[in-house]
Design goal:
The protein has 370 residues and is α/β, with parallel strands linked by helices. The protein folds into two domains: 11-147, 3-Layer(aba) Sandwich (Rossmann fold); 179-369, Hypothetical protein af1432 (Orthogonal Bundle), CATH 1.10.3210. It is built from 15 helices and five strands. The protein has helices at 11-20, 32-43, 55-62, 81-89, 108-116, 129-177, 187-204, 214-223, 236-239, 247-268, 275-286, 307-322, 333-342, 350-358, 360-369, and strands at 24-28, 48-52, 69-73, 99-103, 121-124. α5 (108-116) links the parallel β4 (99-103) and β5 (121-124). α8 crosses α11 (275-286) and α12 (307-322) packs antiparallel against α13 (333-342). It is elongated, with a radius of gyration of 24 Å.
């Protein structure tokens, strides 16, 4: 039985179905029964539901996933629900996303704390399905209305911010470049194309398809060339050494990830809402992390590594191994392809390896054409 349906479907019901269809809703609730009920209820309206029993997992996913609305319970096992709400609101793109608190305690003190933390509405448990559905609809309509009114102003502001941020980034890179010259060749052009291809492929058919928005694809294409910006501060004697680096030299080489990210962080401090700069920091800092946790600088494991950096890791590996270096001749495409397959689940995210293998011929064409 459809718990949303009435005997006669009214105009309001049609409106609800229209607004809720394909709506992306994040549910954060440590009560598995309540979470399952909400998921089942909203799935009937063809909403896309992403449910989390713990706050840390929700917050981590939120970095690469932007819902239309968040349902946040007050019983989160590993986090203070009010602090979690505040942390969500400061994420890029989350400022204007409605957050509805679900609580069993409806006293004034808790309501005040919820609203102070950034909640847009509060609903009391046990949930009444019709009430929850209509509260969701209300906030979606309000959000849509506000978006229309502010669209032109927002677009103009974003254009200015992107332009300013790009200029500031160029300035930051120029400041680093004063320390030495670097000939990037066609490497930067190739890796940005590889990253774009991988992101588009993952966005079409993979477990990450809900995270890969058109904005993500555009951002990674522009952010990819920033991955090795910190190398401009590495001495020529190390960066251009024809032989194997000593352990001490390798430790110096590894600092390029932190130096590049730190420099871009100064830019991001002034443009904290700019996703291009934010992703630039991710790829610079984490593109040498490995899926199995043996990378650097933080030895992150699996999906703790930002998705953008995981994509960048494979793209950079492919290009580096296919290219001639001062200390070796480049490998051919088939050899590098076999290396990548062998590193699935070790160096690389298996899903990204799978995406690469489905478009590896396009990688080879890019390598040949640039």
């Amino acid at each position: 039985m459809n718990i949303f349906s009435d005997c006669n479907r009214s105009e309001t019901e049609n409106e609800i179905a229209l607004h809720l269809n394909k709506t992306r809703i994040m549910v954060i609730d440590s009560d598995p029964t309540a979470s399952a009920l909400i998921k089942g209820m909203l799935s009937l309206q063809q909403c896309e539901i992403l449910a989390f029993p713990i706050g840390s997992a929700a917050l981590m996913t939120a970095r690469n996933y932007t819902p239309n609305l968040v349902l946040l319970a007050d019983n989160i096992m590993d986090a203070d629900c009010y602090e979690l709400c505040r942390n969500l609101k400061i994420l890029t793109g989350y400022k204007d996303i409605p957050i509805i608190f679900m609580t069993v305690v409806s006293d004034i003190e808790n309501k005040t704390k919820a609203f102070d933390a950034g909640a847009d509405d509060i609903i009391t448990k046990p949930l009444h399905f019709a009430e929850l559905r209509n509260r969701i609809l209300l906030h979606l309509k309000l959000s849509m209305h506000e978006s229309k009114l502010e669209l032109r102003e927002t677009l103009e502001k974003q254009i200015m911010e992107v332009s300013d941020a790009q200029l500031a980034t160029i300035f930051a890179l120029a400041r680093l470049a004063e320390q030495r010259d670097e000939d990037t060749g066609a490497h930067l052009e190739r890796v940005r194309e590889y990253c774009k291809l991988l992101a588009e492929r993952l966005g079409g058919n993979s477990p990450y398809k809900t995270y890969i928005t058109p904005e993500f694809v555009e951002c990674i294409q522009h952010a990819a060339p920033l991955h090795d910006v910190g190398k401009v501060a590495i001495p020529d004697s190390i960066l251009l050494k024809p032989g194997k680096l000593s352990q001490e030299e390798f430790e110096i080489m590894k600092t390029h990830a932190i130096m590049g990210a730190d420099n871009m962080q100064m830019v991001f401090n002034h443009y904290s809402g700019n996703s291009f700069v934010g992703m630039g920091i991710e790829v610079a800092l984490y593109h040498h992390e490995r899926w199995d946790g043996t990378g650097y600088p933080d030895r992150l494991i699996g999906r703790n590594i930002p998705l953008s950096a995981r994509i960048m890791a494979l793209a950079d590996f492919y290009d580096a191994l296919c290219s001639d270096r001062c200390y070796r001749k480049g490998f051919n495409h088939e050899e590098v392809k076999a290396m990548i397959e062998n590193e699935s689940g070790k160096h690389f995210d298996p899903e990204i390896v799978k995406a690469f293998l489905s478009i590896e011929a396009e990688f080879e064409n890019i390598m040949c054409n640039y």
